[in-house]
Amino acid sequence: MTTPWQPLLDWWFGSAEAPQEIVATKGQLWFGKRDSQDLEARQRFGELVEQALAGGLTQWMQSPEGWLALVLLLDQLPRMIFRDTPKAFAGDLRAQALVAQGIAADFDRGLTPMQRCFIYLVFEHCENLAVQNEAVSRLAALHDEQPAEHRPVFADQLDYAERHQKIIARFGRFPHRNAILGRESTAEELAFLREPGSRF
């Protein structure tokens, strides 16, 4: 019997097993910012996202895979479905709390290495330096656990985490969110936003 979260995990991660193959087939979905992908996310999983944002689907927390899917509904999919609006970040606090809860139960150890990246990515989205440090620490450890042939994929993930960390260390927030959230940017932030690689 198919679990209610399996269609989401299949869509997000695909059927490949090697990390390089997963990134090759799904990297555009994860980081591509395409209207067609945002629409597909909304059509296929929008109702589940709304349930998750309302505090529902708590029964999914009974297994590592269900936990992962719930975290995706709170952290990744709102960034697609509600792109460039404040609601894109509406699930962040709950996602961070659920990630901390699941890690305390060692749920992350029950996931594949690529799946674990999307658990630790939740910490990268937090505008708090201590949480950013946690993301870097966990992704560094995950990288070191991998066989040599897979490490380049996880080195890329660690690099992204370190870039997020540096922005929070410098500004205490992500300047690219300011306009969306109605926050006034400082002159330093505006100058930073004109630099390549300043937005995620």
Characterize the structure shown.
- This protein is mainly alpha-helical.
- It has one domain (6-193): Tetratricopeptide repeat domain (Serine Threonine Protein Phosphatase 5, Tetratricopeptide repeat).
- The protein has eleven helices and no strands.
- α4 (64-75) packs antiparallel against α6 (92-104) and α6 packs across α7 (113-124).
- The longest helix is centred in the last third of the chain and has 21 residues, at 151-171.
- 31% of the residues are buried.
Give me some keywords for this one.
11 helices, Serine Threonine Protein Phosphatase 5, Tetratricopeptide repeat, mainly alpha, single chain, globular
Question: Could you give the order of the helices and strands?
Answer: HHHHHHHHHHH
Q: Quickly count the domains.
A: 1
Distance between the first and last residues' Cα: 38 Å
Mean pLDDT: 96
Oligomer: single chain
* Shape-level CATH architecture: Alpha Horseshoe
CATH superfamily, by name, is Tetratricopeptide repeat domain
Helix and strand content put the structural class at mainly alpha
Total E-strand runs: 0
Question: What would you report as the Rg, rounded to the nearest angstrom?
Answer: 17 Å
How helix-rich are the residues, as a percent range?
55-70%
Shape: globular
* Poorly predicted residue ranges: none
User: Helical stretch count?
Assistant: 11
Largest sheet: none
Strand content: under 5%
CATH topology: Serine Threonine Protein Phosphatase 5, Tetratricopeptide repeat
Give the CATH class.
Answer: Mainly Alpha
